[in-house]
Structure formats: C-alpha cells, structure tokens
Amino acid sequence: MGKKLTVKICTGTLCYVMGGADLQLLDEQLPAELLAQVDIMGSPCLDCCNRDDSAQAPFVRVGDRIVSGATLSKVIEVIKEELQKQ
Amino acid sequence: MSERGRFFIEIASIQRSERGQKVSGDVCLQRRMGDRIVAVLSDGEGSGVRANVTAGVIGSMAINYAMQDVAAAHAASAIIRTFVSARNVRGGHATFSILDMRANGRVRVVEFENPRYIVLRGGAEYIPEREALEVEVTGDLRQTIYVSEFTALPEDRLILLSDGVTLSGRLTRRMPEGWQREGVVTFCLEATMREPTLSAQELGRRVIDRAEMNDLFSPKNDMSCVSVYFRRPRRILVCTGPPFKAENDASLADMVAHYEGSKLICGGTTAQIISRELGRPVSVVLRRDPAGLPPTSTMDGVDLVTEGVLTLSKVKSLLSRATATEISERGTDGEVARLLLSHDVIDFVVGTRINPMHQDPTLPVELELRRNLVRDLGVLLETKFMKHVTIRYI
C-alpha cells in the first residue's frame, strides 16, 4: 500500500472565520474508504492568506495542491482526484 | 511595581452564593495603586441582590477612603454610620475587612465583625496584635473596629473569610458548631504543608470547596475567601503577532527559547515563525473547542499555542466578565485565562505586522486590531487581577 495522502486544514484566524471551522469535521464526513487513504492534520497557518492573489479563504492543502474557498464537498472532490492520480 | 518591593503579592478571591441566590451578598474588591494593593471583603446584610448592593457600596467606600489616605478609623466609622445605624432587631448587619498591603511587606488590616483574618508563617499561625477602637455611630450606639499592622515575610499567607465559611457545616452531626476559624487554620496549614508553593488562588478555592462540602453542597450562606500569598514572582511570556520586520523573526524566537518562565503563543503565523526559527515542529490538536475557537497546538518547550485575535478577544471578554479569579470555562479562552491568572508577571511581546486580509469589511466577524486588544487585556490584568504587565512591540 502506498503512502497516505496528506490533507492539511488551515486553522488560522482568517480561514477559521471564513468557514474553516466546519472543515475540522472532515474526518467525520469523509467516506470510510477515502478516510483510510488520507492523513488529516491541522496547520496553525498555511500562510496562503498573506499572498497577494485573489484566492479566497479558507484554505486546505491536499497533497501539494492548495484548495481555496474550501468547503467540505470541494475538499472531498479534490481528495478523490488526487487519489486517482496516485 | 511589586517587583520593586521584596516580593510579589498574589491575591485571589473565591466565592459561592447561598443556595438559591444568583448573586452573592458578599463582595470582594481589590485595587492596585503603584506598589500598593487595597482589598476589601464586605458582607452585606442578608443575602441576594440587596446584600450585594450594600456590600458593593461598602467595598467602594473602603477602597476610595484608603486610596485617599484617610485614617482607617475615620473611614471605618463613616462606613459604619452609613450602614449600621439602622441595626435591625435580629442584629444582622453589614460587616467588612479592609486589607492594605505594600510591596515592601507592610500590611495594615481594619476589621469590623468579619471572622478575624488568618496569617500563616513558617508552618504555624502567626497572630499579629490588634488594637480595638471604639467608633461612635449615633448617640449611645458604639461599635468596635480592630486595627492591626505587621510586616509580611516571604512565603507568608493571609486569608480573609466571610462568616459563611466559618459557620459552614453548622448543625450537621460532624460539626455542630460549624467549621470555625480554627478549622480553617488547620485546613490551610495542612494544605500548605503538603504543597508549599500552592497558589493563593488554589488555596482559596480549596477553602471554599471544603466549606461548600461542609454544608453538604448546598451553601446555607454566602461564602467568600480572599487569599493572599507573598512570594517570588511567577512569569509568563506571551508572544502574539508576527514581527513588523521579518529580520526580527529570529530575535522573537530567541526570546521564546531563553525566557525563564512559562510560554504562551497566540497566533498561527507567530507559531509558524517560531517553529521555523527554532526547528521545533508545531502540531495542531484537531478537536471541537467548547468556546467555538480555533483549535490549539502543541510545541516543545511552549506551554500552549493558540490562534491569535479571536482567542485573545474572547479571553478579554471572559476576564472583563469575571467576578472572581476562579475561571471555570472549559474552552480555549478559559484555558488561556487560567494560564495567565496563575502567573504574577506577564510579559507580552506583540508583533505588529498586520494581515491586510483581516481588515476586509466583508468578513463575517469583526477582527480587532491586535495591538489594541493586547493593550486592553494588559490594563485588565493589571487593574482587575493585580498582575505586573509589560508590553513590548516588535
């Protein structure tokens, strides 16, 4: 079995107020077969909101890919895509 | 401030209301002025709101007289004339104790009918001499107040009680006469013998918990304990906010690495910077916080890592609401508040770099400016909780 896919949820101030609070429930919402293939972690700050582009908080990093304007369903979709690539 | 004196004066007040009453008829007030702390424990007549208002007025009168250096006897007689002249038939009336302490150790106590204050020194009770003064209330009615003075030594403890504590347990089979002052003395001596560095807060809490237990967990009277501990200061470093210039990142991390005392980091970016500079990983504890705040993290050598402005803002409102030094909130705000209150010297290091995105007017909540937040918090900790606070901006 290959290495697990790392999912890092930003818990910084901005991400948290922009809806990141709900993302912490990811492990409860993720279907069991996906959950077995990922490592869900938090990050004090992914340092994405400091960058001067128009991307929106909250941010989640799935593998090497940054998901902006993250919602539970969006993150789950990206996890599926990234797992398929592996 | 107190650091200029011989020791830090830790002071805590713990209270429980009589069963069925939402507010306590006892009031504990304390104020710090330079190197001096004045504290009052007043017990209003009866219980509930009426007693609370009387006790509150007595407390503020006592503090204001003391601040203006009015002679203790004069201040006490003014208070007694205001509140005791209409002594009711049952004989119950307002009582109070005023505690005036300096950082050089000089302590003066004025008492009117509260249980006599307790001083513990070197594992035994120390009883300072006290002088009785007659106060003329009206024509033939006279009341007696007691004034005493002594010099505190390092590790001394001082305790004020309301009669709800000394009378607790009365009419139970175990202690028909109640706990009594002697019972409290023995209890405190045993507690400090077992744990010599027990904080004033914790000792006061244990006294009140025991008094509540004596009344079989249904307090028959308002219970208050003001607990004082003269000791070497306990320090905590609070780092919040990234430094304005990135070249100061290293010196921020250096402060964390070399500070002698506890350490608290409030801020995600701040934590990342310190983690990177010191090469110590920071890991987030993903869990739901009862206060609805972002999760905390752990880092080697740091007592607690939290998010920044949301958390500090909640801590500020919690501390401004608090009526005693006992914080029972279970969320991160409560955790931070308890951590801060368990120290005497609080050194804030505030990074002033601003994240422009925090100023976006479309954000669902208003994010306070860190600098203002810490300044308010500092004032609160200093004036309401008698802490020695320093704030340094980087």
Walk me through what this model shows.
The complex is a heterodimer of chains A (86) and B (394). Chain A is an alpha+beta fold. Chain A has one domain (5-69). Chain A contains 4 helices and 4 strands, in the order βαααβββα. Chain A has helices at 13-23, 26-29, 32-35, 72-85, and strands at 5-10, 38-43, 60-62, 65-67. In chain A, β3 (60-62) and β4 form a beta hairpin. Chain A is globular, with a radius of gyration of 12 Å. Chain B has 394 residues and is an alpha+beta fold. Chain B has 2 domains: 2-231, 4-Layer Sandwich (Phosphatase 2c, domain 1), CATH 3.60.40.10; 235-393, no CATH class. Chain B has 10 helices and 18 strands. In chain B, β12 (235-240), α6 and β13 form a beta-alpha-beta unit. The model of chain B has no long low-confidence stretch (mean pLDDT 91). Chains A and B meet through α1 and β2 of A and α7 and β14 of B.
Question: Can you describe this structure in just a few lines?
Answer:
With 86 residues, chain A is of the alpha+beta class. Chain A is built from four helices and four strands, in the order E-H-H-H-E-E-E-H. Chain A has helices at residues 13-23, 26-29, 32-35, 72-85; strands spanning 5-10, 38-43, 60-62, 65-67.
General form of chain B:
elongated
| Terminus-to-terminus distance of chain B | 23 Å
Instruction: Please report which band the strand proportion of chain B falls in: under 5%, 5-15%, 15-25%, 25-35%, 35-45% or over 45%.
Output: 25-35%
What kind of oligomer do you see?
heterodimer
Number of helical regions of chain A: 4
CATH architecture of the largest domain in chain B: 4-Layer Sandwich
The low-confidence parts of chain A are: none
Biggest sheet strand line-up of chain B:
14-15-16-13-12-17-18
Query: How far do the termini of chain A sit from each other?
Result: 11 Å
Structural category of chain B = alpha+beta
- How large is the radius of gyration of chain A? 12 Å
Count of strand segments of chain B: 18
Radius of gyration of chain B: 23 Å
Give helix % range of chain A: 25-40%
In terms of DSSP E residues, the strand content of chain A is 15-25%
Tally of distinct domains of chain B: 2
Order of helices and strands of chain A: EHHHEEEH
